[in-house]
Amino acid sequence: MTARPDRPGLPQAVCVMDPAIADQVLPAELRERLAALVRLAPDVPDGRAGFPAALAEAEILISGWGCPRLTADALAGAPRLRAVMHAAGSVKSLVSDAVWERGIVVSSAADANAGSVVAYTLALITLAARRTLSMAARYGDGWPGFGSRSGADGSTVGIVGASRIGRGVLAGLRRSGAGHRLLLSDPYVTDEEARRLGAERVEPAELCRRSAVVSVHAPLLPETTGLLDAGMLRLIPDGGVLINTARGAIVDTEALTRECASGRLEAYLDVTDPEPLPSGHPLLSLPNVLVTPHIAGAQGSEVRRLGQYAVAEVERWLAGEPLLGEVTHQALSHLA
C-alpha cells in the first residue's frame, strides 16, 4: 500500500528498519491498519543516511532490526517524537538515556518474539532429554537396546533466568505432562514466586549439580557474563545437556568446548560467543553439539507477529491505554 503522509489531524509515524525485512514485518494489511491511525510517512530506503530527515516530523517511530541508535544527537533533530514502537525484541542497542530524558515512551515486541523462542527451546529440551545427538552419532555402531535409551519423563530441567522466555519454557514444561522436576535460578525471584512458576528456586551451582538439562534464558549483564564458566559446567552431571537460546557470552565457550569434546556433555546452541563462530571451530564439528545460526526467534513469515504487536501498541497508545510491551528506564538494566 502507498503511504499517506498528507492527513492533517493525525500524528505522523515513520517506519525505520532494514528494507529487506520491512515488508515482512509490516505487510500491506498492517500498513492499512496504521494508515487509519496515523499519517504514515514513506519508509526510509537508505538506512542511516535518511534517518535524521525521517525523524524530523515524526511523532511515532516504528523501529526494527537495522534502525540506527536513538542518541541525543539523533533526537535533537526529532523535536516531535513522543513514542517508539520497536517491532523486534531487545531495545538495548536502540535506545539511549536521552530517550527517557525526553519523556519518550518505548515499547518492545519482545513478547511476540518470545513465543517462537519458547517453542524452539521446548523442542530442544525434548531432544536433549533423549540425548538425541549422542544417540544419533552412535547409530552406525548398531541399534541401541531399550535399556540404553534415555527418556524425557521425570528428568530434572534447570532454567537459568526467569525472563519472559524462561517463564514461558517453565509453563510449557508444566503443560507437557512429562513430570519434569523443574529448578530455577534467578536472583530477582523469591522462593514463593518460583513455586508459583512450578519450580524450586536454587543457586546456579546447585542447579547445575542437579540438572540433566540446563537451559539458559538470562539476559546478558555484567553479572551474567561468563556465569556458566568451567567450574559451573563441571558440576553438570555426566551425560548432561546445555541449551543456550539467550546470549552466547553467558557461557564460557572454551570450557564448554572442552566438556563437549570429552563427550561428557551435549550442547544445543542457538547463540555463541563469538557469534558467529569462526570457521573450523570444534563446536561446529562435534557430533554431540548442534549449533544453529540464531534462529530461535521469529523467522520468515513469523516476523509478521512483531509488526502486529507494534501496530496494536500504536492503537493502544493513541487510545490512552497502557502499553503491553512498555520498557521503562528502570527495567532496562535487567532486560535482555
From TrEMBL:
<dbReference type="GO" id="GO:0051287">
    <property type="term" value="F:NAD binding"/>
</dbReference>
<dbReference type="Pfam" id="PF02826">
    <property type="entry name" value="2-Hacid_dh_C"/>
</dbReference>
<comment type="similarity">
    <text>Belongs to the D-isomer specific 2-hydroxyacid dehydrogenase family.</text>
</comment>
<feature type="domain" description="D-isomer specific 2-hydroxyacid dehydrogenase catalytic">
    <location>
        <begin position="55"/>
        <end position="327"/>
    </location>
</feature>
<dbReference type="InterPro" id="IPR006139">
    <property type="entry name" value="D-isomer_2_OHA_DH_cat_dom"/>
</dbReference>
<protein>
    <submittedName>
        <fullName>Hydroxyacid dehydrogenase</fullName>
    </submittedName>
</protein>
<dbReference type="GO" id="GO:0016616">
    <property type="term" value="F:oxidoreductase activity, acting on the CH-OH group of donors, NAD or NADP as acceptor"/>
</dbReference>
<dbReference type="InterPro" id="IPR036291">
    <property type="entry name" value="NAD(P)-bd_dom_sf"/>
</dbReference>
<feature type="domain" description="D-isomer specific 2-hydroxyacid dehydrogenase NAD-binding">
    <location>
        <begin position="123"/>
        <end position="296"/>
    </location>
</feature>
<dbReference type="InterPro" id="IPR050857">
    <property type="entry name" value="D-2-hydroxyacid_DH"/>
</dbReference>
<keyword id="KW-0520">NAD</keyword>
<dbReference type="Pfam" id="PF00389">
    <property type="entry name" value="2-Hacid_dh"/>
</dbReference>
<dbReference type="InterPro" id="IPR006140">
    <property type="entry name" value="D-isomer_DH_NAD-bd"/>
</dbReference>
<keyword id="KW-0560">Oxidoreductase</keyword>
